[in-house]
Amino acid sequence: MQAENDLETTLLGSVLSGRNCEGCTVCCTILTVDTPDFKKPAGVHCAHLVADGCGIHAVRPHICRTWFCGWRRMKGLPEEARPDRSGILVSLDFVREPRNCFEGISIMVRLLPGSDAIENGLAGAILDSVCGQLVPVWFTDGSKKMLMHPDSSVAGLVISGDAAPAHLAAEVVAWRERYAAFSTNK
């Protein structure tokens, strides 16, 4: 778990002062938690969640003490991107058995049930702010998952191993080098 926390800090940044949960419990419901000391399926309220937050906050599991959503870590996310207000949860996602090199470690932007973040433009603003690094970004509305970054022309070349045209070569090489450990073309 320590390695994941270090990776979260490397990719998303340190926890920002001035941004705190203050009653937001989106992660306590939406996310899957599967650690040695605590397990909870996605979409299910944590057994310790009470009306005003965590009922065991003082003694909560290690994962709950050390995990922070993207809004708590990423300076580029606007204030209105707080999950309980925006209807979007941004986090680092770890897939144990990735189907392609972009799934192993990525930024996941989750549209929460009932959110109007697509209609009001906030989803687009959030995606724009997280798609600038050499980190894959996925978007899910709960029914399907779509790769948003890199764009499909670059992603297709990275996954296929095909030669890239000159205008995409440097970007394709950078993605391939960074995510070679997750490649299925070894």
> Strand sequence of the main sheet, in spatial order?
5-6-7-8
Number of distinct helices: 8
* Cα radius of gyration in angstroms: 17 Å
Q: What's the overall geometry?
A: globular
Low-confidence stretches: none
Characterize the biggest β-sheet: 4 strands, mixed
- H/E order of the elements? HHEEEEHHHEEHEEHH
Strand portion: 15-25%
Main structural class: alpha+beta
The overall pLDDT, averaged over residues, is 92
Helical content stands at 25-40%
Count the E strands. 8
Gap from first CA to last CA: 27 Å
Description:
- Helix 6 links the parallel strand 6 and strand 7 (137-140).
- The chain is an alpha+beta fold and 186 residues long.
- It has helices at residues 2-12, 27-30, 62-66, 70-73, 83-86, 122-130, 152-160, 166-179; strands at residues 33-35, 38-40, 49-50, 53-54, 88-94, 105-111, 137-140, 145-149.
- Helices cover 32% and strands 18% of the residues.
- The strands form 3 sheets. The protein has a 4-stranded mixed beta sheet. It has a two-stranded antiparallel ribbon with strand order 1-2.
- The mean pLDDT is 92.
- It contains 8 helices and 8 strands.
Features:
186 residues; alpha+beta; four-stranded mixed sheet; two-stranded antiparallel ribbon; 8 helices; 8 strands; 18% strand; globular
